[in-house]
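G., the chain you wanted modeled:
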Amino acid sequence: MSAWIADGCVIAHRLVGSIGAALLCIGWSGGALSQPKPAEGDAAPAEGDAAPAEVIVITGSRVETTPLDAASDVRVIDTERLERPGTQSIFDAATDVSGISLNVRQAGSGFGDVEVRGLSTNATSGGHALILIDGIPQRRLSFGGPYIGGLPFDSIVRLEVAKGAAAALYGRNALTAAIQLFSDPGSHTSTSTFVTDYELETNTVHASARVGAPLGIGHGEGGTFSLTASTVDSEGWREGTEITKGDVYLHAEIPLSGQDQLSVFGGWFRSRQSSAAPVLLDDDGERLPGIERDANLSVPGLNELNLTEQRAAVRYTRSWMPALTSKLTLSHWAGITDSQVGRPSDRPAEGTVTRRLSRDGLSDEFHDFVELEVLGEYRITEDISGAYSAGASGEWLEFIRTQRSVTTAELLESRGNYGGGIPVDYVTGEGPPASEWRYSDESRRDTTESVYGAFVRKRFSLFDRVTVEGGVRFDTFERTQVLPATGEEASTDGSAISPSVGLNVAAWKGERNRVHLFANWGQAFSPIFRAIANTDFADVDPERSTTLDIGLKTRLLDEMLDLTVTGYQLDRFDIVQFNAETAVPENAGDWRIRGLEFDLRVQVVDGLSVMGAVALRDAEITTDIAAPETEGNRPLGVAETTVTAGADWASSFGLGVGTRLRHVGERFGNDTNTFVLPAYLLWDAHVSYAATDWLTASVFGRNLLDADYFPAAFRGVSGGSGFAGDIRTFGASLRARF
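Predicted structure as C-alpha cells:
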C-alpha cells in the first residue's frame, strides 16, 4: 500500500492560462511510483526484524515509514470506516481519533470546523489544522480553511491525521495537525460502486457513483483512473435550511515509462444552501424563552451561501535511480462564493432579538501552488541507513471581494419579509416599524498573497530499533490589498522558520508484540493578515505554536490490540483577536493546552472489534493583553474531556452491527468564563446486511438519544450564542459494488 506524501501545487493558470492547460503540465517529481490504494487500517509492519509487508507514506514524515515507526502520533482512517452508514462527511470518521472534534453549523453544510486539540481550522484567516487532498493543501483567504461541504467526500478512500506542529513539513497553518485526504486512483480491475442514502427527518437524498478501471494508455499494464460523482438534496430539520449540491472528482495514474509516472487530479463542486443562524442562549447554555428547538433566526430568504469550486492538478514522478526520485506538483483551484448572511445581532437583556443583514457580497478566489521535491535513501552499513527529502514551493492566492449596497428600505420593497433592524419579540413575534439601518455602499477589495518556502528533512535509522528524524522549513509571505475605486494600496510581509525533531525507539520488538516510545517537538506558524479601513493592515505578528509530544505505541498479541498514549503541551502564541475598544485586530495573548490522549483498538474475535478514544485537556489563557482579568481562565470552546467508544461486528453470514458513543464535556463560550455550553452525549448506530456479494443494505440512526446540544459557540454575535446540533435522525442506505 502506498499513499502520496503531502505536497503542494502551483497555480496552473498563471503558467498556462487555464485549468485545461494545467492538466497538460509536466515536471520532475519524487516519491514512490506505486499507486496509492485504499488503506486497510493503521497497519503495522510484520513482526520481528523482517521488512514490513507494506510501507505507508504518512503525513507524519516526508519519507516512507509506518504509523508505528513514525516519531509522531499518526492515525489512519481506512475505507471501511469512511463508508460507515450514516457518515455525513469525511471528518465524521475522524472523530474516532482522540482530540478531534467536528463542529458543523448544520447537517450537510458547507460550513464547519475541524477542531484538533482545542484549535479549529477556520478560527482565523489562516487556520490551525492544514487539510490536504491528494497532497495538495487547501486554502481559503475568506474562510481560513476549506469549506467542508466542498470537499469530494465520496471519492476519498483514506484519511490520515498527523497530530502536532507540522509546519516544518508543509508550511503555514499546520499549528496543530496535518490532515490528509486520499482519493481512489482506480485499479487494473474494473469496479463500480453505487451508493444511495435517505434520511427521514431531514428528507435528505444522497446518491453517488464511482467507476474505477484501466485507462488503456501508458507504459506496461497501462494507467488506471477513478471517476466519482455525487449529489445531495436536503430540506433540513429547521425551517429555511435547504441544501442542494453536487460534485465530480477524477484521479488518474499514467505510467509514462518504467521510471516516469503522471498523476492527474481534477474536480468540480456546486452547492446552494440556506443556512441556519446561531441560537441565542443564556449563561447556562439554554435557549432564551420562546425560541423553539427548530427555530431559525436567520433573516428569511437572506441567509444563503452559493459555492462553486474547480480543481485541477498534475504530478509528474521521476525515478532517477533506485535510491533517488523527484516530483513536481502543479495545481490550480478556483472558487466563487455568493453569500447573504442575515442573523441575530445580539442577545438581549430582555424581550427582543434583533435580526439584521450583516454581510452581502460576492467573492472570487484563486489558488495556485507548485512544489518540487527530491527524495533519496542511503545506507552507511548493514545496520545504519536513512532517507531524506528536500524541496521548495510557491503559492499565489487572489481574493476579489465585492460588497453590495443594501438598505432596509430597498429590501422591504423588493422582498417584503426582511427583518433587518427590526426588534422582534421572541415570544409574540411583534416589533416596531422598520429602521433606516444601512449596511454599506457597494465596494470592491482586491487581495493578493504570495508564499515561498524551502524545506529539508532527514531520517536516520540505527539497528532497525532507533529512528531519529528532523527538518526545518523557511517561508516568506506577503499580502497586498487594493481598493480599485480609489487606487489605495497597502501591503505587509513577513517570514518564519519552522523546525521539528523526533525520536522513535522500538523498546520491544518480539514475535507477537511491539512497543515503541516516541517523542517529537516542533514549531508552526499561521500568518494572520487583518485588513481595516479597506487598505490598512493591522500591525500583527503571525500566530505561532510550539508542541511537545511524548508517547507510547503498541501492537500486541499479533496486532489484536493497538494502543497509543500521547502526552502533549501545545503553546499558542500571538493570538490575533479584534479589540472592541480600539476597533483594531491585535496580538491579544497566548494559550497553553496540556493533554493526554488515548487511542485503543481491540480485535476481540474474528469479526468483532471495539475502540476507544479519550482526550483529557488542561487549557489556560496564559496572557491576555486586552483583558488581563481573563488570564488563568479556560479558553472558549475547549472541552476538558472528549470520549468516543464503539464496537463493530461483522458476521460470516452477512449481518453487521456498529455503534458509537461520543461524549463532549462542558465548554465555556467566552474567555471570561461566564457563558457555558453544556456537556452532551451522542449515540449513533447502524445495522447492515450483505444480501449478496455485491449488494449491502443498511439502516442507521444518529443522535439516538435526541440530545439537544450545541457543538460550538459563535463569537460573531455579542452575548451568548451557539450552533445547534442535529436532532435524532433515521435513515437507510444501499451500496452496490460490481
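The two ends are 22 Å apart (CA to CA).

Shout if anything looks off.
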